[in-house]
Specification:
305 residues, alpha+beta, Uridine Diphospho-n-acetylenolpyruvylglucosamine Reductase, domain 2, Uridine Diphospho-n-acetylenolpyruvylglucosamine Reductase, domain 3, Enolase-like, domain 1, 3 domains, 5-stranded antiparallel beta sheet, 3-stranded parallel beta sheet, 24% strand, binds flavin-adenine dinucleotide
Length: 305
């Protein structure tokens, strides 16, 4: 049995919404297809009457800098993100997370929007978007467009607020790093790479004028909950503290006290994940801090899976 009958390639968001509305729930948005096609082939999902491919819609495939913000189309591929000099310099954690997703074949077609719309608790792209305080623009099936905090798109593990049979995730926006700001992403992955990480960690920091003290921090470590969340206790432990080993140790203590990763049959025990929290913080926090201090950021670890 075919997995779909009709394949549409709209050129605008409005056209995509109109096609989805016409099928009244029997069609679904597809971007890179790296998750959806597996769900259709092996996940026991019923075939769709139609797929609506959003990767030919210009506003969804563009990366635009507007003032100190970036507008990043939901259908931008992971490869395109890793090749953006703007994002490498000023949203380094996102480049580092997209650069380790799958292998080159997955990154060449898989999109940031698909990573978020699939609503997994530890999608690598989503982890960094949380640390960057990103918002997402949704075109709802009823024609409304709305900007929402990224977290508002998540209802539970694998459950999105979006109905991808009616709604389209259009773009993301977030502030690019300015003076005294930097970010980094680190993850632990099984060597044979079972699609999602054992644990991932994205950190963004803002330092004071002298670049010796944390003014603000956002830390996303996942999965530690059914949806991506900010590690607020870790952030609180950093704010106002000098950028030194004492702050790092305080952040690690706060993480251990507040985060409870669960065991996963395919990835790791809860105990191993708990240990890896420390490893990731020891890697990502000094790196983000150094980038904020020097203003220099070269993405690390790309393509290492
Ligand atoms: C071998 C392999 C390795 C992988 N490794 C990783 C990894 O290391 N880390 C990781 O995070 N992920 C990994 N993934 C998962 C996947 O590749 C990513 O989540 C990818 O970003 C999904 O994007 P996509 O464009 O392929 O989504 P698709 O498969 O096209 O879509 C996924 C879901 O989102 C919906 N959707 C997509 N775009 C939109 C939109 N714009 N609006 C509304 N709904 C939308 C679709 O309807 C579908 O429900 C891996 C997958 C494979 C097959």
């Amino acid at each position: 049995m075919p997995y779909w009958q009709y394949y549409h390639t709209p050129q605008t968001v409005e056209e995509a919404l109109a096609i989805l509305a016409r099928y009244n729930g029997a069609a679904q948005v597809i971007a890179g297809g790296t998750d959806l096609l597996i769900d259709l082939q092996y996940g026991g999902e019923p075939p769709r009457t139609a797929l609506v491919d959003v990767t030919r819609i210009p506003e969804m495939t563009a990366i635009n800098e507007v003032d100190d913000l970036v507008l990043l189309g939901a259908a931008v591929t992971h490869t395109a993100i890793t090749r953006s000099a703007l994002l490498e310099a000023r949203a380094t954690c996102l480049v580092e997370s997209c650069g380790v997703i799958g292998g080159p074949q997955v990154r060449n077609v898989g999109t940031l929007g698909g990573n978020v719309a699939h609503a997994l608790p530890a999608g690598d792209g989503a982890t960094s978007l949380m640390a960057l305080d990103a918002e997402a623009e949704v075109a709802w099936g009823d024609g409304r467009r709305e900007w929402l905090p990224l977290a508002a798109l998540y209802r539970g593990a694998g459950q999105s607020a979006l109905d991808s049979r009616r709604d389209v995730l259009v773009r993301f926006r977030f502030r690019l790093a300015g003076a005294g700001e930097g970010s980094a992403f680190k993850r632990v992955m099984r060597p044979q790479g079972v699609a999602l990480p054992v644990l991932g960690c994205a950190i963004w920091v803002k330092l004071d004028e002298n670049k010796t003290r944390y003014v603000d921090a956002r830390v996303c470590i996942g999965p530690v909950a059914p949806t991506p969340i900010l590690a607020t206790a870790v952030q609180d432990a950093l704010r106002g503290q000098p950028c030194d080993d004492t702050a790092l140790e305080a952040a690690i203590r706060a993480a251990h006290a507040s985060l409870r990763p669960r065991a996963s049959k395919y990835r790791a025990t809860a105990e191993y994940r708990q240990l890896m929290i420390e490893t990731l913080l020891r890697g990502a926090l000094p790196l983000a801090t150094r980038r904020a201090q020097t203003g220099q950021a070269r993405a690390e670890g790309l393509g290492l899976g």
